[in-house]
Amino acid sequence: MKRTQIDIEAVLAQLSLDEKVALLAGIDGWHTKAIPRLGVPSIRLSDGPNGVRGTRFFNGVPAACLPCETALGATFDQDLVRELGQLLGQECKAKGAHVLLGPTINIQRGPLGGRGFESFSEDPVLSGTLAASYCEGVQAEDIIPTPKHLVCNDQEHERVAVNSIVTDRALREIYLLPFQIALGRARPGALMTSYNKVNGTHASEDPRLLRDIVRREWGFDGLIMSDWFGTYSVSEALNAGLDLEMPGMSHFRGPCLIHAITSNKVKEHVVDERVRSVLRLVQLAARAQIPEMAPEVQRNLPATSALLRRAASESVVLLKNEDHILPLSPAKTTLVIGPNANIAAYCGGGSAALPAYYTTTPLEGIRNKAAALSSSLSPPRDLVTFTQGAYGHKELPLLGEQLRAPEDGRVGYTFRVYTESKEQNPARVAVDTLHMTSSSAFLMDYVHPEVKGDLYYITMDGNFTPAETGDYEFGLTVAGTGLLYVDGELVVDNKTNQRQGTSFFGIGTPEERGVIHLTAGQTYAVHVDYGTAPTSTLKVKNVVSFGPGGVRVGGARRIEPAQAVEEAVRLASDTASFDQVVVCVGLNSDWESEGFDRPHMDLPAGSDALVHRVLAARADAVVVVQSGTPVTMPWAPQTKALLQAWYGGNEAGNGIADVLFGDVNPAAKLPLSFPVTLAQNPSYLNYRSEGGRVLYGEDVYVGYRYYDSIGVQPLFRFGHGLSYTSFAASGLAVTVVDTPAIKAASLTLVLTVANTGDRAGAEVLQVYVAPPPTTTAVRRPVRELKAFHKVPLLQPGESRAVALPPISLALATSYWDENRDAWLSEAGAYTVHVVGTGAGNTVSQTFAVHASRWWTGLLGDVSGSTTNGHA
Ligand code: BGC
């Protein structure tokens, strides 16, 4: 493999101190410093994790959007995740990025985390194993993945300030384990630290974490970067082991660092260590042969769509299916109801968000299924009918695509940038004019030669022609100040009396709204006047300031909620007209986003009432929930057929329809437990920053470890998921392949899996290990997931012998022994439970560990996987 010509030690010897310091921070949002005289290029980094956005939050180049990570967690499919990782590697090349900022492998301690959708699972083995596959896929394209955020960034509330107080045992067994597994198997070339403190010290300047655990104990020799604006010190961060401060312009690594070096607070040889890490990254990045500052392009290929559709459909979890209501028939008439049916909830919000090549709504997916048949009928008629039932948005739907540019009628609007306000200069002339479709503009990385600094002004102009007469609501959300006019009339004022909200990563206002009556068919001029963040009247205390701020414009026709429900119930009751009914509810990126946690676990107001009423009228209605993390489902006992879908990426709508109509037989399992109520979850009393800290009071009993241990049934347990067929597992044989070194020892499992139903289907096997019942020193969870395996499609009646890849004996048996600061594989009799789909489909076997052994370090890969990124 071709490497760059840079000789790290030779470059280091020739660097001036200023150059060394400059290499230790970004130069902008997404690039490292180049030293052309020594042949050191600039490296591009890009978010992650569910797509590659490239270098622009603002008006970015569209990209492939994968299902969110909880959706990928639900697939329990390492091969699929590896393939998707490879797709991300290819997408990185299209965006000129050498480093991908993902996967996210924090842990969903509870259901409310604003970024919960971004991590795979509440279980560290599922999370770490899928993260390793993700990294291997990315690395297959010679791109460098960046597992993030190390560690305990499991909530958004006061995320840069909060002190996560966690026992060593929980830190090791739950929160660090995903990183340990991913690093052991895939050896990624980079890591990102978290914003928060862990037990009193910010992760980005914690020598125990970065130096003692990551570098010394795990032997990590890749690069450690801070999260964006998550470096908080000069000397402490550098001495602890933080190589790269992101983004630029640097706060800490200019003259301040030179000062620290000259005053001997930081030794030059320590600076050299950090520079070596950056140069190693540069060297590793060269493998991808991506030119420096490459242009960003799209690669929207049919093969990409096919893979994304597979991922979307294979992530949908069948939670209930009484009376075999599912799958539906495309030949029958279908009524589709609900707030999530006609919108594309394709990804969560924040830095994971990106403009997708295209999106599909559940309604489109369902219509696509019926399309061929509808047009072949004589006379042709639409077999699918939609009624709204309720709205589910928190902020009004984006207005951009509902507008037409005044100049040429194209979908979208005209965006103009000025360096002066209208008041300063009524004759001002725009320095930049763009045609845009998205009416959410986050300006952090907007650049224009005439725009200097963060203070500038923007106008947005588009024509709106309503299809129906009625009251229309418009909304304006800003980090800055804004006014919205319709035909010259001020409809929304977000300039006087501004309120603090959570928008734009926590620095902006809530959405301010105004209502105006409009007439169908008439064209209205919508005009927005916006001033960037420095014009804001809010006193925002937030280290993550993201410069010039942003503006978001929304709009929708007002509906009368009671009438909308009545209409849905009326149609659903009409069994003569509609053979089958699908209700689509859920959340979207307004509700689940980086920057804030959800205040409660409920669906948006009106959704529960809609589902209750429709189910009362129509017991066989199928309910589809789209969310990245659990929601309360008070109507769940009323349902007969229930699907959990997620933010499914470009192909979300088609993926849901594939499962609804049986083109894909679901095999997915929940990667998170869904509690009945929020109060039932183990983090309930400790899930926000109070007095600057959050206590990880549930200790190692996260998610199912808690429900199992106290013998309480959540609404749906981790690992739950049905199929349209049935399976039986039998003949489990467990062999211990022991070796003197515990880390090389393994467990091998062989069993037979049979498809006992009448449809082809894939089966997911979950391997749990229960500790010895006589274990002495510590209480342990009843059983813990230690491996999983997806058995590819089995035909009806087919039976197959399955040999699982070897499982590390150390991983399968150990807990963290706080007395010895080491993992302990305790002697005793353990039980393996292999859990398949369907009640009672579990086979068990015991095995013995004869001697207690302690160990530390990475586990490596006992299954012999060969992809090795950072060799
Ligand atoms: C997020 C990171 C992300 C970075 C760059 C931060 O706000 O926490 O996950 O990679 O921004 O967008």
Question: Which CATH class of the domain at 306-394 and 560-671 is shown?
Answer: Alpha Beta
Percentage of residues in DSSP E strands: 15-25%
Radius of gyration: 27 Å
Bound molecules: beta-D-glucopyranose
Helix content: 10-25%
In the sheet with the most strands, the strands line up as: 9-24-23-22-10-11
Task: Examine the coordinates and then state which fold CATH places here, giving the name of the CATH topology of the domain at 306-394 and 560-671.
Answer: Rossmann fold
Q: What's the mean pLDDT score?
A: 95
Low-confidence stretches: 863-871
Please give the count of helices.
Answer: 18
Task: Give the distance, in angstroms, between the N- and C-terminal Cα atoms.
Answer: 12 Å
Q: Give the biggest beta sheet.
A: 6 strands, mixed
Instruction: Indicate the structural class.
Output: alpha/beta
Number of strands: 36
Shape: globular
CATH architecture of the domain at 306-394 and 560-671: 3-Layer(aba) Sandwich
Q: CATH-wise, what's the superfamily of the domain at 306-394 and 560-671?
A: Glycoside hydrolase family 3 C-terminal domain
